[in-house]
Amino acid sequence: MRITTRAVSVALLAPLALAACSSSDPGDGGEGGSTDAGACQPADGPVELDFTSWIPGIEGVVDVWNEENPDIQVSVQTGPNGNGGTYQNFFNQLEAGNAPDLGQIEYDALPNFRVQDGLENIGVCEDVAAAQDQFVDWTWAQASLGEEGALYGVPQDTGPMAMFYRSDLFEENGIEVPTTWDEFATAAEQVRETGGYITNFSQADINQFAGFVWQANGSWFTNDGEAWTVDLDSAESTEVAAYWDDLIERDLVSTYPGWTTEWDNAYNSGEVWTWNSAVWGANSIATGAPDTAGNWSVAPSPQWSEGEQSAGNWGGSTIAVLKGSEHLYEASQFALWLNTSEEALTMLNEEANLYPATTAGLELPVLSEGVEFYGDQAIYDVFAEASGQVSADFVWGPTMTQVYNDVSDGFAGAISGSGTLPDALTAAESSTVSALEAQAIPVAE
Amino acid sequence: MSTTTAAVPPSARARARTTGRKGNGRNGPREGFLPRTAAMLVMGVFTVYFLTPIWWLLVASTKSRGDLTTTNALWFSDIQLGENIAAVASYGGGVLPRWLLNSVLYAGVGALVATVLAGMCGYALAKYVFPGRELVFNVVLGGVLVPATALALPLFLLFSQVSATNTFWSVFLPSIVSPFGVYLARIFAASAVPEELLEAARLDGSGEVRTFFTVSVRLMFPALVTVFLFQFVAIWNNFFLPLIMLRDESLFPVTLGLYTWNTQVNQVPELRLYVLTGALLSIVPLIIVFLLLQRFWRTGLGSGALK
Asked: What are the transmembrane regions (chain A) (predicted)?
């Protein structure tokens, strides 16, 4: 008895001690940072910056910068991807007051950091503001979070979406390549008759679904500067969900979990014919389905109404300056160079297949070549066009991890036969509102 | 049931059924056919259950990237384990061997120091009477109940205060504490180290420290090996603490390094194969430690059971 009560009291003390630490720390970091960081002034002497990223091969790119800029030395650290632990680490470090100056943050995670006051506004830097017209419009909208004159991260890469398809199979079977979602559904029936599936709907890739909603000009959140509106079950979102629900219901699309061996195999064996995916997906197919080399092509995404030209986006990130950095000017200079200079963009593309967020970057020489796996089609031309067609109005919420989990759970249920995809969105809508309220984030009625 | 049937010779029918396995059970106590089969079946199922993933890992790491998705997952195609190992060892400037070395350092040295500390602490708690002894022991017991994961974040904040995050010590220092080891060492020392022996040593003029290292440690050896093994595996598999503490890739243990690679598979597809081959390499040291030390460990568990 004695043992248990003591043990419990020890266990109870731990979180208290933690709370004590955490309440005292941000005060120090916050005060020290904000006084210095409010203005975007160059420092007097040489500056050292910390930069955390998970881009493979980023070290080589940073080396180039360090050689050219002896007064602004950047030391780069790599770790797991954002949701794999790096975001949590950023939050821990912000709490402890030792966050790196620069960090990679995906578009869908920026609002979370903004709500937790983890980002410096680099929009106050003249050079940054002047660079706006170099970037594809919607990327700037994503990174400014709808605030006039603000920027919370320099857009790094993007994932405009198009349709990868097996041109050989469509041709052999005399099926026309769909250009609208209606035609896509018709083609799905024809493909099913041959024994295959037109595409795969992956229950866990909620980002892909968000890309579909984005393409349909829907948005999941809005923020008027004071409160958030949650719109997971908006008219557009529900329409897209109902469309896919129908295809799943009629067994016209397969439902393998994405990024698994089964999934690879479904593409490699020719069972699944198309993939509506982002530009970086080009690499995933080439690796996952090596036997189908030369048989793939890329076409613009099917449209909701004929003649429309709209594309979704799946993925992409920014380089943000984290709260407390004392070198706003130098950090923003580096972030601009990394994401606008042809030198850096070419290296990032070659090392890690990053697809640039600048208009000039879309025309890089490396991106105009034909790709062997796609029958020497210059596939990046399709994506460059798609990038210009992405709406600037899609807004991410501050609790995307929770949203993805809840929607994914609902979709998994719908696929195994309980409920529908629109139902899943309605359920996620209410759970998201409660999640926001639980974190004391204002929600508009 | 089994004891009564054990003495009865197998019936003709049973013998007919088991003719394929003549000569079974000649030595030792004989079990009936059914219980024996049932036991074998249960063990067989569990063996398959535990070994299949390792088998899969072994097979997968011998394949080329293309074969990985296209060929039977549980059987070999073109074996190219050597090439895979060479490729994985040189990827990223040869960082994987570095990670393995880090893991061996964290786990090997960490477990050794943890064992010495836990052994001394447990011995002191068992053999010396002093005020607050039970209090100290209960606090340590409380430590057993707090999962290591729950301590990672507070530790990070503490290390941040002294600017010691992202260092070797930020992972090493927390690893050398083993409350469970103290508990085990105390229980074991209480029964395995006779008071009379210590008296005799004291009479012969041996100091307490010398007695501990020359006499008591030998008697406590099986328990210490157990503590070492537990702690070695715990540190080797401890993923969360390094994840939170370390930023510098060259300090990563192998678990964190492979995890990092695995999250980059979408961008660099060849990493998928490297993660598999790396995972195979990373379990080799664990297997070696177990094979070398299991002899002692069995003694430890056995003697603990009898006393």
From this structure: none
Residue A359, Cβ density class (10 Å: 0-12 exposed, 13-18 middle, ≥19 buried): middle
**Number of domains comprising chain A:** 2
Residue pair B118/B227 in contact by the 8 Å Cβ criterion: yes
Within a domain: residue A281? Answer: yes
Do A208 and A348 belong together in one domain? no
Q: Are A55 and A284 in contact (CB under 8 A)?
A: no
Structural domain of B293: 89-306
Q: Which of A89-98, B28-37, B287-296 has the lowest mean pLDDT?
A: B28-37
Tokens of B91: 């990827």
Q: What CATH number is given to the structural domain containing A111?
A: 3.40.190.10
Counted domains in chain B: 2
The string of DSSP letters for A310-375 reads -B-EEEEEEEEEBTT-S-HHHHHHHHHHHHH-HHHHHHHHHHH---BSBTTGGG-GGGSS-BGGGT
Question: A297 and A244 in one domain?
Answer: yes
Statement: residue A416 has pLDDT above 60: yes
Residue B247: which of B170, B155, B153 has the closest Cα? Answer: B170
- What separation in angstroms does the CA of A211 have from each of A155, A182, A385, A414, B273? 18, 18, 16, 20, 29
| Residue B146 in domain | yes
Q: How far apart are CA B218 and CA B118, in angstroms?
A: 15
Q: Which of B145, B259, B260 to mutate to test the interface with A (most CBs of A within 10 A)?
A: B260
Give the pLDDT of residue A214: 97
State whether B59 and B95 are in the same domain. Answer: no
For residue A200, give the 3-state DSSP assignment: strand
Residue A53 at interface with chain B, using a CB cutoff of 8 Å: no
Q: Is residue B253 part of a domain?
A: yes
Of B20, B35, B70, which one is at a domain's C-terminal end? B70
Nearest CB to B165; choose among A9, A98, A284: A98
**Could you report the per-residue pLDDT of A128-175, keeping only the tens digit for each?**
999 999 999 999 999 999 888 899 999 999 999 999 999 999 999 999
Please report the number of interchain residue pairs, chain A to chain B, with beta-carbon separation below 8 angstroms.
123
CB within 8 Å of chain B, chain A residues 226-265: 259, 261, 264-265
